[in-house]
């Protein structure tokens, strides 16, 4: 049976790579893109739910899985409150909608080091999101925890670029659990998200570097 997948964050680095993969997959019958502005593309499988407030765009329609690729930085958002609005309020709002519609599988990009008890703001927010999602009772919850992402970003992130360069040099030396901090190509992460959304694993799973590469094969 063909599946209907809701994708949030289709204009971002990873979401922009997830969208064509979903549209090209024979197992996908429809992709619902949750966007603030219409995408400059048309496809027989693509349906766009458009609203400046993404939560207002949601409709009482059942889908088979949600892939949430929403995310920003404090610098890009402009404040901690604005960061929380994008990285916490929106994903959790979409998740509550998904539960209400009986969506069985939810996949989301989190981050390495996500910890609700962390003193680091970014890690704490990501951890709080994971914690709340885990308590919602999805049949399948996939929490993807990549390290620094590489790929053609629309905006320049100087700090991330430096971190990526350093981690690329150190990559071969990172072994054991430290291997989770190796840089993650955005297209590999996209493939892993699609694979998990189409064949979701039951229960709660946290996917890190090696897990993501295995899913992406």
Placed side by side, the strands forming the largest sheet appear as 3-2-1-4-5-6-9
- The CATH homologous superfamily is named NAD(P)-binding Rossmann-like Domain
Give the DSSP E fraction (strand runs of 2 or more residues): 15-25%
Low-confidence stretches: none
Oligomer: single chain
Characterize the overall form: globular
Counted up, domains total: 1
Number of strand elements? 9
What pattern of helices and strands is seen along the backbone?
Answer: EHEEHEHHEHEEHEHEH
Main beta-sheet strand count, sense and barrel state: 7 strands, parallel
- Overall helicity: 40-55%
How far from one another are the termini? 23 Å
Q: Structural class per helix/strand content?
A: alpha/beta
In short:
The protein is α/β, with parallel strands linked by helices and 217 residues long. Helix content is 40%, strand content 19%.
Brief descriptors of the model:
single chain, 217 residues, alpha/beta, Rossmann fold, seven-stranded parallel beta sheet, two-stranded parallel sheet
Summarize the helices and strands and which ones pair or pack.
Elements: E1 3-8, H1 15-24, E2 28-35, E3 46-50, H2 54-57, E4 65-68, H3 74-77, H4 80-100, E5 105-109, H5 121-134, E6 140-144, E7 149-150, H6 158-170, E8 184-185, H7 186-198, E9 203-207, H8 209-216
Parallel strand pairs: 1-2, 1-4, 2-3, 4-5, 5-6, 6-9, 7-8
Helix pairs in contact: 1-7, 4-5, 7-8
């Amino acid at each position: 049976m063909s599946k209907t997948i809701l994708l949030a964050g289709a204009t971002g680095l990873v979401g922009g790579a997830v969208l064509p993969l979903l549209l090209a997959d024979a197992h996908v019958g429809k992709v619902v893109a949750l966007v603030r502005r219409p995408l400059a593309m048309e496809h027989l499988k693509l349906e766009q739910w458009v609203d400046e407030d993404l939560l207002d765009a949601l409709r009482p329609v059942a889908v088979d899985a949600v892939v949430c690729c929403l995310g920003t930085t404090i610098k890009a958002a402009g404040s901690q409150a604005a960061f929380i609005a994008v990285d916490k309020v929106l994903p959790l709002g979409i998740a509550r909608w998904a539960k209400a519609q009986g969506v069985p599988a939810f996949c989301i990009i989190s981050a390495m080091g996500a910890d609700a008890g962390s003193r680091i703001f970014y890690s704490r927010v990501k951890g709080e999101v994971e914690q709340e999602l885990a308590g919602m009772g999805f049949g399948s919850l996939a929490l993807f925890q990549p390290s620094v992402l590489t790929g053609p970003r629309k905006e320049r992130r100087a700090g991330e670029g430096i971190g990526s360069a350093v981690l690329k040099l150190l990559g071969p030396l990172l072994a054991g659990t430290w291997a989770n901090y190796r840089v993650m190509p955005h297209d590999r992460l996209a493939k892993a998200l699609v694979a998990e959304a189409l064949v979701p694993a039951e229960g709660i799973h946290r996917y890190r570097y090696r897990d993501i590469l295995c899913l992406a094969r």
